[in-house]
């Protein structure tokens, strides 16, 4: 039977173009309730085949109103980037080619594209030349993979082979973490069998940066991993990595730089190259489609010891890079292809401009919101703005109102015990006009909610 590619792919292309072209003006938040989405998309289990083109049409109709326009220049929730044209198109082709990028033998071009992208990334971030790289699903798995390598290495130095003997009976590992680390660090430690009680929280300063004076007394007490951070998820603050690495020479220093690492391309973070591993996301600030994370280690042997797999039916070649040696997946999508295209399309200067523009837009937000009477809580040194729009109750209500109003979308948080709106500027298209329109929408919502409060 001749497959009909034209029908469903043509429909998908048409829907894609409509979506992308309307992105700058469509409401940013979702409007459909879960019950409505279930009704539109649900129904009986299909008992037989359907027409692929009609399925694509029905799917695209069904999700309408349930999509959050995270690719919009006025989406500021969590830390989520959009997708650049080159990375999106390359990602489509990665799907069309449908390569299993685990093994060189199964996907030579995908393996080489990733090898090249890996070299470019190491150069962009200024990491040591021997740095090993893995293409994972996100920051969570990047932290997991790096910490698996760290677990192997600190125990190897203590005379214990964790890959063979596991953790039962192993020397204890102390994991020194900033008090404001990202929750994925805790989760990675759970996945790794270390558990969250292995963590020793290290005091941070007012912006969430690990304090070297608080770290120093905790060092030198057996196998130790230090989890530092480049880019606090609330404030954007970057830990003093140079000081941390100088102090923790006997420990494995991991840097969670899910978004902050990208800032080192234009404004080098001092001492970053002295760490032992780094995690970052391509789906955040590089604006590559989901899902795409990156893990780097300065110790390829430890990285491979923790991740690699050999089986009798697999084909390996000492001269070739098998991606599965560097990530926890076995079979997997060739997600490095989109990363490669993104880097080629932006180049070093494009990445620097993208990051600088987002930071400038975050500053613009802070300035304008301050002028409008809001309270900016953090030092806006990167792309994150924490703003308070009245008391806790009013702030929370405004966050909800802004999400419903549709001009822009930002999420809420509780920071140092106080409710705040979190604004993260991570999209490659965000312009001054987007910021101005968003500030207007936020101020309007504040006025409406304030009026509602006085009415009781
Ligand atoms: C987003 C983020 C993560 C988790 O990354 P995912 O891609 O969502 O898995 C980890 N650390 C920090 C600092 C982050 O901002």
Could you explain how this protein is built, in words?
With 456 residues, the chain is an alpha/beta fold. Among the domains are: 64 residues; 254 residues, 3-Layer(aba) Sandwich (Aspartate Aminotransferase, domain 2). It is built from 14 helices and eleven strands. The strands form two sheets. A seven-stranded mixed sheet has the order 1-7-6-5-4-2-3, sandwiched between helices. A four-stranded antiparallel sheet has the order 8-9-11-10. A hairpin with a 2-residue loop joins strand 10 and strand 11. Helix 13 crosses helix 14. It starts with 5 loop residues before the first helix and ends with a helix.
Give descriptors for this structure.
single chain; 456 residues; alpha/beta; Aspartate Aminotransferase, domain 2; seven-stranded mixed beta sheet; four-stranded antiparallel beta sheet; 14 helices; 42% helix; 12% strand; globular; binds pyridoxal-5'-phosphate; aminotransferase
């Amino acid at each position: 039977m001749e497959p009909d590619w034209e029908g469903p792919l043509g429909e998908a292309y048409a829907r894609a173009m409509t979506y992308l072209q309307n992105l700058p003006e469509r409401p940013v938040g979702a409007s459909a309730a879960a019950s409505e989405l279930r009704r539109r998309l649900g129904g009986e289990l299909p008992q037989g085949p359907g027409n692929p083109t009609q399925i694509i049409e029905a799917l695209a109709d069904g999700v309408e109103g349930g999509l959050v326009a995270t690719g919009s220049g006025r989406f500021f929730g969590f830390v989520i980037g959009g997708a650049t044209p080159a990375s999106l198109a390359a990602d489509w082709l990665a799907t069309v080619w449908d390569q299993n990028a685990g093994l060189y033998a199964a996907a030579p071009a995908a393996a080489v594209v990733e090898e090249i992208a890996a070299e470019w990334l190491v150069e962009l971030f200024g990491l040591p030349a021997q740095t090993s790289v893995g293409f994972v699903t996100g920051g969570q798995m990047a932290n997991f993979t790096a910490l698996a390598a760290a677990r192997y290495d600190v125990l190897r130095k203590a005379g214990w082979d964790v890959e063979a003997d596991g953790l039962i009976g192993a020397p204890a590992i102390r994991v020194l973490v900033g008090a404001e680390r990202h929750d994925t660090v805790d989760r990675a430690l759970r996945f790794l069998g270390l558990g969250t009680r292995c963590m020793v929280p290290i005091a941070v300063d007012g912006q969430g940066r690990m304090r070297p004076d608080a770290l120093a007394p905790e060092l030198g007490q057996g196998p130790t991993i230090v989890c530092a951070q480049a880019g606090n998820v609330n404030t954007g603050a970057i830990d003093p990595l140079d000081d941390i690495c100088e102090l923790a020479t006997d420990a494995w220093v991991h840097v969670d730089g899910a978004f902050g690492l990208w800032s080192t391309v234009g404004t080098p973070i001092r001492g970053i190259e002295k760490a032992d591993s780094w995690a970052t996301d391509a789906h955040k600030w590089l604006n590559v489609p989901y899902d795409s994370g990156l893990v780097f280690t300065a110790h390829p042997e430890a990285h491979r010891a923790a991740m690699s797999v050999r089986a009798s039916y697999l084909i390996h070649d000492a001269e070739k890079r098998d991606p599965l040696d560097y990530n926890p997946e076995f079979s997997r999508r060739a997600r490095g292809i989109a990363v490669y295209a993104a880097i080629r399309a932006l180049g070093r200067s494009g990445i620097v401009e993208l990051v600088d523009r987002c930071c400038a837009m975050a500053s613009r937000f802070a300035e304008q919101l301050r002028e409008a009477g809001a309270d900016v809580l953090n030092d806006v040194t990167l792309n994150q703005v924490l703003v308070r729009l009245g008391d806790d109750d009013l702030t929370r209500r405004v966050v909800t109102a802004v999400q419903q109003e549709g001009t822009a979308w930002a999420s809420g948080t509780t920071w140092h015990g106080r409710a705040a709106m979190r604004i993260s500027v991570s999209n490659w298209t965000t312009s001054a006009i987007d910021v101005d329109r968003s500030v207007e929408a936020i101020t309007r919502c504040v006025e409406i909610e304030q009026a509602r409060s006085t009415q009781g």
